[in-house]
Queue: 4 jobs
Job 1
Amino acid sequence: MEFITANFAPIMFAGLIVFLLLGFPVAFSLGACGLTFGIIGIELGVFPSSVLAWLPQRLIGIMANDTLLAVPFFTLMGLILERSGMAEDLLDTVGQVFGPMRGGLALAVVFVGALLAATTGVVAASVISMGLISLPIMLRYGYDRKFTSGVIAASGTLAQIIPPSLVLIIMADQLGRSVGDMYKGAFVPAFMLVGCYVAYIAALAIFKPASVPALPPEARIYREPNGSGGYQSLLVLMVISFLVSVFLARHMPEVHSWWLGKEITSVATDEKVVVAMCGGTFVALLIALINKYAKLGLLSRLAERVTFVLIPPLLLIFLVLGTIFLGIATPTEGGAMGAIGALVMAWARKRLDMNLLKQALAATTKLGSFVMFILIGATIFGLVFQAADGPIWVEHLLSSLPGGQVGFLIVVNVMVFFLAFFLDYFELSFIVVPLLAPVADKLGIDLIWFGVLLAMNMQTSFMHPPFGFALFFLRSVAPDKPYVDRVTKKVMDPVTTMQIYKGAIPFLFIQLFMVGMMIAFPNLVTGSLDKAQTYDLKAVGEQMLESLQPGEGQSGGYGTDGGYGSDEPQAPGAPAAPEAQPQPDSGAAAPEATADDPLKALQDSMKTAPKN
């Protein structure tokens, strides 16, 4: 029994692993392990019985957590857009734009995956949608099966890291940090990852062009009466939009000063990007609307199609993220606004009906319940684990690693990488992150950077052969038997499971490369964050002391005897100062009617404390 008592925390952690290996759902495994070891710990005297009495208050705190409301809101927003046919329209349109290029369809999948990630935030929805729509098209025109599977699965997992990602919301809640700051920190690494995917596709187009052929001319449907593709007017519209965006980015401090009514000298990079792109896309949409309803004929069919398909979801994304980054709305309010915007967009396209609404609400309820049950189970486990001094055991275990911060980060990322073989990102966030965050904080690691780093690492959990969830989602919609293509009427070979696994490996290495880049260059995350305000406590203290000292000829300050009164002699004929009352041992002075109120002076000095 003494051995169990002395090693209660590691035994409890091992017990959790046993519960998980038995095949029980993670939420119930966490709760059952916590309650079981809670009863055992009370019986052995490891901690008092009052520990379990704290549980109801913890659970009430979970239900009162406003931050978690962002999860169902963003989920509903994504499901409405996905089920209203937005993914199909985007893939069709972007595929037509990039089709004439080698690898154009793959580029379309990556860009649409990034757009879906910024609207749906749900990996399953992105992978399944693109698997159903783009996989048959890419196979039809001769794309390599392994590469096709890998690019679709990898693009779907972008929903993990591109704001408004659900995993970033959970990560911020577990780390005790702002969701808005987590979004800002993930902004640059997320789009760098997209750039890495694009670079890989470009390399294949140069060195293995047969594996990523261009779209044949007969498949390009948006042509002008003269036979041209209509790229000229699209290019002009893009240049105008780009120039407006650059102008806004360069004058962003003036825009902020006008909006807030006070002078702003600097603006964070992510805010510049989001607001500038929002302005540029809005101008492009305005030009397209004027051209359509005034029948000016300035834009080609392709340019009009791109504008009316791409701009509305882009504006919704920039509106949601922009209001969060600018501090106008909280992430929860931004999610609610995004859900309403998605409903309006679906209604405007005449695709919103009661059946679609029921399906989206049912799926949102399931995901929200899934998150809540895991969080409740993790709270039960965490409460008992903390009572048994588990965090201290973890801290001693990890803080003694050689190499300091770098050694800790390497071990943690390797551990998360292998745990991701078996656990979902929600489960990793609720089980592992609360144990690692205190150690990282004690080692002086910025928790926003640490959270984004773990989120990027957890993204690999969807790409691990043979357990990656994105691979399972793609397998569920990929053809497993020979089939007849509906356009060419040719018999097409199936996509094997091994081809899906092999196709995922290059993108898995790209994700790990980004993890290494974030460790080597933390400024990729922290550079997007607002500068923390610091205060000169010494100057504040000096100002407080000065304000508490009595002025010349005044009574009521602190005297040298420790009581109220003044050491200065009284003026002739002036009323005598009240006799100082005896003071308690603590040195606190009794309240007295004085000329200067020390409490008021203290409050005023704190209000006017100088900032650095």
Job 2
Amino acid sequence: MAQEFSTRFARHKDELEWLFMELYHNREGLEVLEREMAEAYNARSAELKALDKARSADPEWYKQGNMFGMTMYTDLFAGNLKELAKKLPYLKEQKLTYLHLMPLLQMPHPHNDGGYAVEDFDTVDPALGTNKDLENLTRELRKAGISLCLDFVMNHTASTHRWAMAAKAGDPWFQAYYHLYEDRTIPDQYEQTVPQVFPNTAPGNFTWCEEMHKWVLTTFHDYQWDLNYANPAVFVDMTKSILHLANLGVEVFRIDAVPYIWKQLGTTCRNLPQVHTIVRMLRMVLECVCPAVILKGEVVMAPKELAAYFGTPEKPECHMLYNVSTMVNLWGALASRDTRLLKAQLDALHALPDNCWFVNYLRCHDDIGWGLDEAVEKRLGIDPQKHKEYLYHFYEGNFPGSWAKGELYNYDPATGDARSCGTTASLCGVEQALEKNDKTALDYAVKRDLLLHTAMAFLQGFPMLNCGDEIAQLNGWDYKNDPDRVEDSRNLHRSKFNWEDAKRRTRKDTLQNQLWQGMEQLRQMRADPCFAPDAWVTTWDSHNPGVLALVRKRGEETLVGLFNFTEYPAGASLDALGGEYHTPEGTSVWLADVELEPYQALLVKNK
């Protein structure tokens, strides 16, 4: 066993043993896990071990101001992994440091929930390439300074995974990998306390399996079988798969649906303490075997639930989380021309401990779920239900004066609940303006788009673009003509990358060039020392609900961002931030009395 691994393992051995034995009371399982860790370290390439050494010397590498990410589907962007590698110059042109590829492990076709139903956690889907293609891609990305992030679907497997198939065939070892029941007694008890994720499209939390004559726990869709993490073999096998992918060069794992992974009767089966034990063990395993690799949690919960997923500075869990709440509140502020909810939500995030770090974004593969803080809404005199209905109808384009073009997702007429789909550009009004050939409306739409991106990139954490946003990609309505895709309105913003539009990015006075240049300005903004990992970030009272004020401070340097979320000129006054500030162009600004243009993002600095 190499010295590096021995040293790192010695640091974590006692805690790992304590947590594993406390959870599983299974010494044999612990020994299997430790063997898998040693084997994974020995199989790790010299190049990746060198990366481990460099990252160990710079553990906050992912918090640097130059971090700039993008998320995409391999097939929609380039067809497959080999072709994606050929598109690397396009990614380098954007100075990306982080690339999140949507699920690409072997999956059933056509119904796979966008790749989140996995048939084999160790193998790339043949439609996208081979493991060798993935390894070659990660090597080329590393040369370009880009870290690859992949989803790791922790909660469930596809119902066609070899474990599930063995369970269906009656193998008791693999039946223990899932939650199976011969009658409805226990499932009915679960249903009393466990919320439904998709009450309309996938009602209930259990699915009858005719082959086994048993009920299977299926939190999401009927073809996604929940894994039983009370079985140590499940944890060990899933950890083995993560290490295998890490050795192919994956540097970041987005652990999907992590709050759901532990099930306990009489609870909501969300955010249970055992979840944190599992994530903590996983973090330690990675720190021993491949410390260059980090964890990004998908935790779609209120801010008060988030801190626990980072662990503590002494016993950390996730390195970073998706900033879902701010994404939703940014869109809410734009439609309502009111930043008060957004400010309150950011204040809640800024109150979290210093070890909390976020990936900020506007759009991704998923919908916009209008999970706003109802207590804050009521305190501000906002009716939560009416506000939610206003927002999703507004972004559907089904509200007087709406500039947006989108669609509803999972509309429930009984509860009045719905989510929203669409690309950033289409939701900001670009698509509607182009259809009407309205130059003024297009100008405003671009300003909205850039306003949101600038505010998002100013936040604590680092920004991640949705592929196509950099060239104002519009909705892909052609999904309605595909019988395999028509049932899921999220496919509206999951369309093939428009390479013809991308060619226009260098042509002045084109829509694509405006957005391309706007993204470059974001990168220039984030080169400022006030975007260092140790910068202090806070909101400020602008004395105007339509204007969001954010302050970044590091040492004697202060950077202020003012964001006008309205289509009208707006004034702002920032108390106690006296003195003279300057725009990047050198214009003097006094923060006691600032005038902003419609949808303007104004950045000023004290030096």
Job 3
Amino acid sequence: MPTDLVLLSARLVDPVSGGPLEHTALAVEDGRIRALGDDRSMRALAGAATTVVDLKGAAVTPGLVDGHLHPVTGAELGHGLDLSRCADLDDVRAALAGAARPLAPGAWLHAWGLDPNAFGDLPLSNAPFEQVLDGIPAFLLLFDAHSAIASARALEIAGVDGPRDFEQASEIVCDDQGHPTGLLVEDAACEAVERAAPRPGFAERRDRLAASLRAMAAAGLTGGHVMDANGDSLALYADLDAAGELPLRLRVLPWCRPETGEDGLGELIERQGTGGRLWRTAGVKLFMDGTVDNGTAWLEHPDLHGESTRPFWPDPEAYTRAVARLHRAGVPTATHAIGDAAVRHVLDSVEKAIARDGSGVRHRVEHIETVPDDTLSRFAEVGVTASMQPTHCTDYTRADHTDNWSRRLGEERAARAWRCRDLWDAGATVVLGSDWPIAPYAPLGVLAGARHRRPSRDLTRPPHGPEQALTARRALLGMTVNPALATGEEDRVGRLLVGHRADLTVLADDPLTTPAEELADVPVLMTVVDGRTTHRHPGLS
């Protein structure tokens, strides 16, 4: 039978061995790798309808998978003002002024990527921006997406005029007189203002999402672990999939929060396995804390502002019971845990669930920004995946620890930043991702950051924690084999093996031999998902 796709004259990269396979070509049929061999034998499998591509020595890797991203959120934010390159308040004001000029009267200004380091020693508030905004309702999301700055007009429209109590750890920050400063901490407070802003319709959001996913495919991504299913995001994925416009394979984990309750947990369990050809609901995302930058992480000792002392889940034992119920039902969990106390509690909870109901469910911890030595080995002992985003470290912290994250933690804990290598050496399965839109989704940038640990905007600056850098082979494993291990799919995806899914990334140069500082600029020549070409570089004949 003729095959669907044949790739010739390729360097087939094996992340496990760390080198090229002996074969130089492969054939794809019905979404799977049908055969590996030399050019002559693979060409013989081609028929009149087969797509045959001569790669002229380009590198083929197993499809690159982002272990943590938010496509729908990112697609919506991407149509707002990007503040991520603003280094100080003057930069922010200039950007806001430029975005404000063309706005129609009464229109909202949405921005994202605001770095708290831009405030220097000033407290985070709307005060530095009120003059330039001049009555415009504005919602400025900070880079961590766990906090925002709302303008005075936005607060007024939303009816937010003082502090409020929330079921989860969340806060409308107020001054000594009880007036909101504009700083909104965590989801519930942000939603109190954000829901007052007009939102685009389904069709517009669908088009934005489709464009973002196409761009991800062009960057070399073949899949992603989606850490939310909020609003109508599942309907968006289903609509794109049904139309044949979904260019990535998505594994979606809806949220479970303190307010979810027993009935909500039951609904999450019932939802497992639903999906389409290229997406499915598989797992649940939980939160154990917030972020270091806004003082809502859960640390074993307070930060230097006296903050980050509470869990996001007001009753940590209720979280433990939720994990136990999900584990008993065979549902894998992925828990946002940034601080050392949060990470420890997640590991304890999973360990208790396994002790009661046995192993076999693959749980994860997301982010793991700072952990002490005695926590490292527990990931392997308990069997919990470490899902990490190295570009958060490289792009939002500094080697000299003068950034907001490091100053809050102090020297000892800042020196334990994103311990990718230590966790790997301790036997953990380390999965790499971007957390887009928190950081750029381009997978080559993530692989590069994991290796050089330098800020992507200026590679001449010193690395933060160079001893935690991963080798080229380990970084590639973190976006190919290890995502498959984390999801229990290592027998059918993640390697260039006969029978495995034909999810492939084709690069102009070998990611295992390209210097880390040059890797992010390597052209992506072709991306293949389920045997279907989702991106092809115009220069590829």
Job 4
Amino acid sequence: MNKRGLTLLSGILMLSMLSACGGNNNGNAGSNAAEPQSSAAATQTAGSGTQAAGDSGKVDTSQAVTLKMIFVGPKPVDYDTVFGEINKKLKEKINATVEGEFLDWSDWAQKYPLKLAANEDFDLIYAANWAGYNDQALKGGFLELTDDMLQKYAPQTWKAMPQVNWDQAKVNGKLYMVPQNRGETVEKLILYREDLRKKYNLPEINSPEAYANYLKTIAEKEKGVMPFTPETGDWKFHNLDRVLLKQQNEWNMLDFDLPVAFKLDDPTGKVFNVYETPEFKELVYYYKDLADHNAWSKSSLNSKLDHQQELKEGKTASITHNLGTLGSLMTDMREKNSPYELALADVTPDKKKSVAVTTQNGIAIHATSKNPERALMMIDLLQNDKELHDLIMNGISGTHYNPVGDDKYTNAEKNANFTGFSNWGFNSPLNRENASFSDEANALTDKWEGEVYHYQLETFVFDNSKVKTEVANVGNVMLRYGIPLEYGMMKDVDKGLAELQKQVKAAGIDAIIAEVQRQIDEFLAKSAK
């Protein structure tokens, strides 16, 4: 997702004995990920792409095409203006234009799989591990991308992308997305109203207990302000779980679609049912206490509120997300002279920090796309062509952002009119960093970069093809019985937890755990050779 890029990729690449500079990517020695070379496919002008007899290096772009792409997130206010400029460049380079469709955060989780199941007519779609990439790939929603296709239609990406990124994006040995080409942490933290903490003379928020104290105090004393507003979406575990369950206990919880985890520092990778742990039981009591003290709305389960907008308007005292998103929000509010003083809270400051696998963001091609070659060419350009990458990631220079050198920017007046949607699928070494990024966020970035914990199973990806029915059944149980418990909506926590454990077992969690463990054991055995 849209985060301040963190230069953590080299740590991952060490696991595969590859160079982080891109010098040995896919056997293409001498390529430089930070300086992608122009390609024949990407530089043809409209109408000049008629393929010569016997010239397999040329791509026929003589026929103009319109590519439809599905994004997640709200449609930007200045979509027409920015995509108009993007389409001018795409038309010139590959005789194509792109038309975007946007699935809002409040309902993307329901609509996204339906788009694929209904076999709607589109060419590209944002893809990510947290958006069910593996599952949709196995269901046949995405087109398989072969090495030959990538070399011919996405040559810049082929040269620039480290091999480990391609490997991490494979499902059953086959590739179904062009992943992002940039490392990032996935840890969550809290952005809160520092002015309210000072107003009530509360201690520093550096632990779950201190955060609970803050929320309860705001609920009691600050009328008209919701202490915490969660992010909307069909989440089976919410963002606070990522802080208070995953980070607090130093677990890897796969893709958060299953109550399955293992300890980061366990060399055997022993898998367990999260719902049966004392840590989970303690956490749901923590949530129940907060809910009873009105720390969040009673209607949170069905809320459609934009938590970032609620913070901007002073209607909530805290939200949680990743460092880049919260740092950018702080920057934006300060530049717009917000009356609210903000601060970041890491309530798990001494816990291990981990890094995202490459499938955190990417772009897939619809299995039924009529123009997969041109779609790949578009991805190639938007990830590697400096001018087009700046447009898709930042908008129009002088309107949405002000360039600072080649790799930084500051927000321009209409920055908010082109943000908040999944352009992150095109993340690459060409990403600009915000020159006005808050000092607090920069300090945390530097701290976390130096503390990233690399473990044996860091690049492990679960293939659920053998337990797809059980995964679907368990997911339904999580939504029906788990989420109400986690928002403190159950009067009897013990009874609710017992029912959740019973239902998830009946849905097939033991079979899933056995399959995950089998794959982990095989992964570790191969790694030891």
